[in-house]
Amino acid sequence: MRKDQINQEVKNAQRALDKILPGLVRVAALKDADGNGHVIVGYYDDYKSGSKSSHMERLDRFYSMNIFLSFFQQRKDYMLATPMEQLMYKDHPAMYSNQIK
């Protein structure tokens, strides 16, 4: 992927995430560990660990923004919960909305 295409993917993903989780996820692109390409990364607060956490996908011919976004969509209710609610929750974040209702 060319640099302008990577930048456009980051902008598109950030725009979409700002609609799902306003201001909670910051999207960036980085060189991957082996230096042969790039990854798109979404950074978010993880109150259980007390630090930032992230989700990444390789920006290659198999990349789909929908798959990248689905990670955050699946955890939307958990990520929108208060820090105290997140700390009290003991199961997997993707299960949060199913068990609270």
Question: Would you kindly provide a written description of the structure presented here, covering whatever features stand out?
Answer:
The protein has helices spanning 3-20, 65-74, 76-80, 83-88, 96-100, and strands at residues 26-31, 38-46, 51-58. It is elongated and about 45 Å long. The chain is an alpha+beta fold and 101 residues long. The protein is 44% helix and 23% strand. α1 (3-20) runs parallel beside α2. It contains five helices and three strands. It has one domain (3-100): Double Stranded RNA Binding Domain. β1 and β2 (38-46) form a beta hairpin.
Q: What is the percent of helical residues? A: 40-55%
The main sheet orders its strands as 1-2-3
What is the average per-residue confidence, as pLDDT, rounded to a whole number? 92
Task: Compute the number of structural domains.
Answer: 1
CATH topology: Double Stranded RNA Binding Domain
Number of strands: 3
The CATH C-level name is: Alpha Beta
Percent of residues in beta strands: 15-25%
- Biggest sheet overview: 3 strands, antiparallel
H/E element sequence: HEEEHHHH
Helix/strand/pairing category: alpha+beta
User: What is the CATH architecture term?
Assistant: 2-Layer Sandwich
Taking all Cα atoms into account, the compactness measure Rg is: 15 Å
Q: What's the N-to-C terminus distance?
A: 42 Å
Helices, by number, come to 5
